[in-house]
Structures are given as C-alpha cells and as structure tokens.
Amino acid sequence: MADAANGGLTVSIEDTTGQGVTITQSGQQGAFGGELLTINFGPHHPSTHGVLRLIVDLDGEKVKRVKPVIGYLHTGIEKQMEALRWQQGVVCTDRHDYLSPPINNLAYALAVERLMGVEVPPRAQALRVIMSELTRLSSHLVWLGTSGIELGAMSVLMYCFRERDTIMDMNEEISGFRMHTSYIRPGGVMADATPRFFDLLAKFLREMPGHIDEYEDLLTMNPIWRARTIGIGRLAPEVAKVVGASGPMIRGSGIAWDLRKVMPYSGYENYDFEVATNDGCDCYARYLVRIQEMRESVKILAQAVDRLPDGPVNVDDRKMLPPPREELETSMEAVIHHFKLFTEGYSVPPGDVYVAVESGRGENGCYISSDGTHKPRRVKFRSASFVNLQALERMALDHMVADLVAIIGTADTVLGDVDR
Amino acid sequence: MGLEDLVDSLGQNVLTTTVGKVIGWGRGNSVWPAQFGLACCAIEMISTATAGVDIARFGSEAMRASPRQADLMIVSGRVSQKMAPILRTIYDQMPEPKWVISMGACASTGGVFNNYALLQGVDKVVPVDVYIPGCPPRPEDLLNALMILQERIKAQGIVTR
Question: What's the confidence (pLDDT) of residue A19?
C-alpha cells in the first residue's frame, strides 16, 4: 500500500496466521540516511488507554506513520443486541463505551422512543440530563487522571478518582450500581431519584468547582504539563472536519460543534450553558476545553436540580413498561401485561432511525433498524472514539515517539467504544 | 511495636521459623500485579489503586508495566478471540511463581456476551486462581480476591506449581 504522505513508504500487511500480522517493509531511507524503524506499540502497552495497537514507523525518534490496529476488544455488542429484546438491549449499550454508560443508554432510548413515537415526561427528561452530565464529569475525570499519569503527573489521578468515586456513589444511590447503571431506558428511567441522591448531588455541586480549580492548580500553569502538551498533536480545523472528529477534539480546534446546542435532545435547549472551545488546536487546547466542559456540566446540573419538575418518570404505557408491583395483586390485566412484557417483550414499529447525543468523547450515535418484531433487526453505534481515532496519524506526524503517548491520551479513545 | 521494643521484649532469644513460612509471608505481602487493563473492569482496577480504596495497604500497589516484573495478572475485562493469544503471551512472560485473578463476569465466563467474539472465560487460556463475580466488581471485591489469594500464597510456602 503506497502512501504518498510519507514519500512512498511501502508497508504491506498480510494476515498470515489469522492471529498475528506480518509486516514487510521496503528499504525506505530516513532523513539521516538510516532506515525507518517499524515498532509495535501495544496492545497491552500501559499508555494506550486499553488494548489499542499501533504500528509506528520511526525515523530516529520522529513518528513518520501511525497505523492503528483495532479489534482487540471486539465484543460483538451490535450483533448481540440483535439477539436481545428491545428492553434487554440497554444492558449492552452500557458496556460499549464503558466510561459513559448513561449517555449510551440515552442514545439507544431516544432512538427506540422515536421509532415508537413516545415522548417521556419532563421529570424523566431532567433526570436524564442530570445523569448525562454526571457521566460526562466522571468520564472527563478518568481522562484527566490517566492523561496526567501518562505525562508524569502521578498525583492528578488520586484527586480525579476521589471525585469520580463520589459520582459512583451517586450512581449507586440512584440505580443500585456503580458503573453500568442501565438507568436510562426506553420509556423513561429506571426509578425516581431518592432524597439521598439529591443530598449527595447538592454536596457535590457545592464542592466540585473548587475541585476543578484544584486540578487546574496542578496542571494549567505546570511547566512540564505545558511543555508536553502545547504545540503537540496539532489538529487543524479543516482536518478535524474532514476526519469527522467531534466532541472536545473538534472544539479544541475552535469549532463550536456540540450536539447539545445544535441538535438539542432531552430538553437541553432549556439549559443555559456555553460551548467550550479553544483555538489552540493542540493537546493543551483540548485539555482546556475538557476542563471548561466540566465547569459547564456543573452549571447544567445546578439548573437541572433547581428546575426539576414533579411528576412521573416513565411513560404511562403498559405495553412498554411493566405495571407497578401493587397493581399485580389486584388486576388480572396487569398480570397479563407483566407476563407478556417479560416473555415476549414489546415490538417496535418497522423503520430506521438515527439519533445522536453528545457524550464526553463526541457524537455518540445510535442507528436502529426495526422490522416490527420484538427484537432489533440491526443496531449500529456511531462511536466518537472510533472516528476520533482516525485523526491520530495526522496529529502524531513528525512528533517524537514520547509525544505519541500524549496524543493518544488527548484523543480520549475508549477501546470498548472503538471495537464494540 | 518498634524494633527496639521487640529486642527488649525478646531479650536474647532467637526466633525460629521455617523457610517456607518466611517465603510465603514475603510473597503473599508483595504481590505485584501486571499493569494491564482490558475493559470496564480496568477502570475499577484503577479505582482500587487510588486513595479511596488503596490497594497499597495490601502491598499490591506496584503495578508493573513489564510482565517480567509481575507476580499477578488481573484479567480485568472481556477477552476477545483476538486478544487471547496476546494475553497468553503476557502470562508466559511472567516469571514463576505467578497467579491470575479473573476479574468480572466477562473474564470468568463470557458474561452477557455469549457470542462469536469473546472467549467464554479466560480459564480457557490461562489457569485462574481466583474468580470475582460482578459486572464490573466493586473495588472492594478486588481487594477481597487479593486477600483470598494472599492467604493461599502464604499457605503454599516454598512449593511452586
């Protein structure tokens, strides 16, 4: 495969064994007369954010070519969902982008609801926004902590995971589970939030702005952090558009593209927040964007708690959601509905639908094709990580191999999201 | 009790033990895991290493980037068919004696994903010492598994498998 971008370097990759990849290379000369060196980076390298494998061509220490090899975490989630009923599919959505489960739930739930023509009550919408923003915060916290570790700032992780743990406590309070909540479901949410959840949330909202200042104290003016990120991993706005980058990747290149603003869902149009952008186009700009997004998330959360409407948290549709427990003892109809729902499930009208939401990583889309039965015909996720990974080579070109670690970190790929 | 106090209380006495017990005690309290994350469980594994739960209390905070320096492999997440040979390579690179914790439902049995892509349990490629249920397990569950493993290592003494 000839690649004009790096002077006709020929790398042919053939899968000979079905398990490994054999690399042959032409005797391409580097700048100092030496041959390009091909190294293997991953898939169990500690800095690759999971099981990403990169085949990197180096001229001395300069990166000349990066080829991601993905699929080491291929789980068959999309195929699995074809074998599960509509309400069971939520479980799989939790597990593809495992740093933002409720946002994945939301994309799937919105898609199913659009096919069924269902509108969830306002309280459910607000609870969905609360969970989405908490998830965005926890996802950015994991990103910040692990990126810090990779560039040598070991202590940031401890601070970030302290706040992440409070978010996990809230997840546990509202849904009974720390990470994979399955809280947002087609037709509403799992259950109403408890008073203790709102106590925890109020305390969190009081403390979080101070904690974000703390992270900034550690990093924003830190000379090592700045030296490792400023001017590293430049992604020009036009390139970002061409590769289809989204989320902090495109906002770090100065383009204010945020689905919460441009295609609002779940009542995001009612909240007052800014789209964080930065014109720096480098790793540092994307860091600033994510920090700013965390502040905006706290703002949205405060508004959502303030204006939380009363009312039901689920649609009143016995064909879609199970009847309340107490009805089962008095109503034969409720028993029948309950039985039908848990043996056969509900069916969704035939049709295709695509719904996208803004996750911590960017546009997280869910495409569903239904043939009118009680299981999906096809579910496809447009995952932000996969698309953002395409920008990796453009960002890493002509940087040192040590900067590659910073660049992988800034893309914030979750390999479960890439491979699905 | 400081060392001086120990000397005072023991006087001129001599402690006797068996080599096996000392080695078991030493190995059990310094189980170094390989730093090697697969999926969702890896995030909870990181959680275990941070201040809230603090695996350092049990001597296992030294996550080694090189399998050559590791005693314990925590299989944290689902193992795909493509990843399985690599996982086995890492296991083979670890020096004896070595132990494996299978963290979470996917690593133990394939979990919810009973399909073409996933290994239905990591025990098909490496021998597992402790299985942890949960999807993903809480950090405390991982600590519990480590404590179970430590007891076993201490009982095992000098014998290697």
Answer: 42
- pLDDT tens digits, residue range A224-233? 899 989 888 8
Which of B35, B36, B38, B120 would best serve as a mutation to test chain A binding (most A beta carbons within 10 A)?
A: B38
Distance from CA of A83 to the nearest CA of B (A): 10
Position B147: which residue type? M
pLDDT tens for each residue of B52-66: 888 889 888 888 888
Q: How far apart are CA B36 and CA A373, in angstroms?
A: 41
Mean pLDDT for the stretch of residues A387-398: 88
**How far, in Å, CA of A362 to CA of A388, rounded?**
8
- Give every strand in the sheet of A351-359, ordered side by side: A351-359, A362-370, A378-382
Write out pLDDT tens, residues A43-55. 777 666 778 888 8
> Beta strand A53-59 with A37-41: parallel, antiparallel or unpaired?
antiparallel
- Position B6 in a domain: no
Domains of chain A: 2-69 (no CATH), 77-314+348-419 (1.10.645.10)
Long-range own/partner contacts, residues A268-273 (CB < 8 A, 24 or more apart): A268/A129, A270/A307, A271/A129, A271/A300, A271/A303, A271/A304, A272/A299, A272/A303, A273/A299, A273/A300
User: What are the chain B neighbours of A74 within 8 Å (beta carbons)?
Assistant: 80, 82, 117
What confidence score (pLDDT) does residue A31 get? 58
Strand order across the A37-41 sheet: A37-41, A53-59, A62-69
What is the average per-residue pLDDT within A198-212? 93
Say how far apart CA A74 and CA A77 lie, in whole Å. Answer: 8
Contact A76 B86 (CB under 8 A): no
- Confidence at B161, pLDDT banded by 50, 70, 90: low
| Domain enclosing residue B57, as ranges | 21-155
Domain membership flag for residue B27: yes
State residue A409's pLDDT score: 87
Rounded to whole angstroms, the Cα distance separating A179 from B76 reads 14
Q: Which CATH number is B31's domain given?
A: 3.40.50.12280
The reported pLDDT for the residue numbered A328 is: 84
Q: Are B97 and B20 in contact (CB under 8 A)?
A: no
Residues of chain B found within 8 Å of residue A99, distances taken between Cβ atoms: 43
Domain count, chain B: 1
Distances (CA, A) of A71 to A311, A324, A380, A391, A418: 44, 42, 16, 18, 8
pLDDT higher for A22 or A120? A120
